[in-house]
Amino acid sequence: MVPLPARGRPGEQPLLWMGGVGGAPQVALVGEPGAGRVTGRLTARPGGPEPSRTATVRSVGAYDDGRWHQLALRRTGGLLTLTVDGVSTSVPDVPGTVSRNSTFGVHLGQKPDGRAFLTGDLDEVRVYARALTDRELTALRESNAPPSGRGAVLLLPLDRLSAG
What we know:
By secondary structure, this protein is mainly beta. The protein has one domain: Jelly Rolls. The chain is built from one helix and twelve strands. The strands form four sheets. It has a five-stranded antiparallel sheet, with no helix packed on it. Strands 7-8-9 form a three-stranded antiparallel sheet, with no helix packed on it. A two-stranded antiparallel ribbon has the order 1-6. It is globular, with a radius of gyration of 15 Å. The two termini are 25 Å apart.
């Protein structure tokens, strides 16, 4: 869940960034309030000498109202789908993997190269090894009920502060 930054703020507002930048394999969720949208991007590298390819999906709206919103980026059935509060937009997926021959780290609230930072808050960041169903996303949004079966490979509740 994330309250997106103030309306009309210019520039990228990185929410979640896994992998590299540029043409490197990556998965990114970025708020773009100045452009009136949220963008999900997946760059995958197919096997062999083929170059990486990118699929980009954009929301219809920026959701920059200061309220909490559930964002999900899912890759399933040949589609890359961005869902914000139960409203989905899809584009054709690209073949390949996001982790082959790539430095792969997880960055919250900033790009891996440190050139953009989130001006806002994050909560309940989760990454699953499979695409969640619409029903599972609804249960997470409405009652924070985790899906059955394979759990999160990354679960950051972001509910505690520590001094240090």
